[in-house]
Specification:
The chain has 40 residues and is mainly alpha-helical. The longest helix is centred in the middle third of the chain and has 26 residues. The radius of gyration is 14 Å and the shape is elongated. 65% of the residues lie in helices and 0% in strands.
C-alpha cells in the first residue's frame, strides 16, 4: 500500500490522514479475511 501526502488543492491534516490510514487498514484486513476464506 502506498500513501502519498501531496495535494493539489488543500492539504490533509495529520488527524485526517491517520483516520484514512485506519480505514485502509480495516479494509485490507477484510480483504485478507475474504481471500483466506475463499482458498480454505
Amino acid at each position: 500500500i502506498e500513501v502519498q501526502m501531496s495535494a493539489e488543492g488543500a492539504t490533509y491534516s495529520r488527524d485526517q490522514m491517520n483516520k484514512l490510514i485506519d480505514l485502509a487498514e480495516l479494509g485490507v484486513g477484510q480483504l485478507v479475511a475474504k481471500q483466506l476464506a475463499a482458498v480454505s
